[in-house]
Amino acid sequence: MFDFVIAGAGFAGSVLAERLASQANKKVLVIDKRNHIAGNTYDFYNNDGILVHKYGPHIFHTNSREVFDYLSKFTEWRPYEHQVLASVDGQLVPIPINQNTINKLYGLNLNCEQVNDFLKSKAEKRDQIKTSEDVVINTVGKELYEKFFRGYTKKQWGLEPSELDASVTARVPTRTNRDNRYFTDTYQCMPLHGYTKLFENMLSHPNIKVMLNTDYEEIQNIIPHTSLIYTGPIDSYFNYCYGKLPYRSLDFKFETHDKEFFQPTGTVNYPNTQAYTRITEFKYLTGQQHLKTSVVYEYPKADGDPYYPIPRPENNKMYKQYQLLAATLTNVYFTGRLGTYKYYNMDQVVAQSLTLYKKIVHDDASKEGIAFKPFAGGIDTKITKFNFDADDAGAE
Ligand code: FAD
Ligand code: UDP
Fold first, then answer.
1. Is 179 a domain residue?
2. In angstroms, what is the span from residue 60 Cα to ligand 1's centroid?
3. What is the model's pTM?
4. How close is the Cα of 156 to the center of ligand 2, in Å?
């Protein structure tokens, strides 16, 4: 008899498996319908011996010391700060838009203050910032919106930016300095031996068994378990009783080139004419030395594996119905990007599962009448500074 079955061996499920097994001495069965662990962060060496990410490029970044310290138990890191160029008007210019972008695009030589004035003169102030269109037009105006955001967003989501929550394009800031980095988080690094290795270390505990190529549905009535943690799509768990939650999918096209480098930086974005949104060259991310190089093109599509929850009011409303239904179940928990229908980065998913672990332990203690130990509180899963004492949660 297992204490927990965990459906999904991505970050959401594996963090909980590791915590429950190592800290609470629970017997855990992790299952995944795919033939590998690590969820969408799965990486492997391709036929040419180059480390690639099967489900698109994954760059680790976080402001949470707790998340960073926790994952550091399972991997060493390679410092890496991602830089992205956008192909606009026949040039490659930095995105997020910054001083270098404006100067290159318009053939200017503005300083920080002048770029600020330039953007102010272009921006069209909106009273309310509700949609992804509002965010961008309010900050940089229509012209830059058309060049960098509208086409990319339409491709990526199959929707106009005005049909998407503000949070989507708000992921990409605008700067007036010359910082060309894609992220500004405190911790920016890649697992030194890859994500899959990190997961192997995380799941290597005598209390954890892993079963691959298995859908939860196949074993739910066969393998006895007290509790379930479900990290697949929440609507599928409930047989779509309130309807299908929309997800956006991608096709990945991999290429290996017989030269050391293919493009000038880790990722090049193609906001406009091409059918793909971006090309990523893995060697920049992994630091691998190799005479050849592998890249991946991302082609967005409606059907296929559910990669992106689509943040917009009607979808959030449907998710709330599923969330309410989930709250009526005992010993069933939902977490992760698909389980909670949230456009979360890896660190946010790790933080969310660490928080859920604390809740489960707390509920367990209350049930068994063990002296009440106050629940230390949630982890802020927004992209802000985290004020957590790493020794408080997550530490052994
Ligand atoms: P997943 O990794 O999707 O894991 C869920 C697992 O559950 C899957 O393996 C699935 O097979 C399994 N499953 C589902 N249903 C069932 C079932 N019924 N039975 C058994 N198994 C089931 N984040 C970053 O921080 N940085 C990045 O650079 C970044 N890049 C990304 C690029 C792309 C193209 C995508 C799609 C995402 C990216 N992310 C990035 C987000 C990151 O992938 C997620 O935050 C993270 O992987 C979510 O982990 P998860 O465990 O919730 O979900
Ligand atoms: N975006 C854009 N142009 C860009 C980069 C991003 O319009 O050059 C918008 C687009 O809607 C995208 C969103 O900003 O989906 C978030 O970008 P991010 O790079 O964070 O996407 P992810 O890595 O999650 O696919």
1. no
2. 13
3. 0.94
4. 8
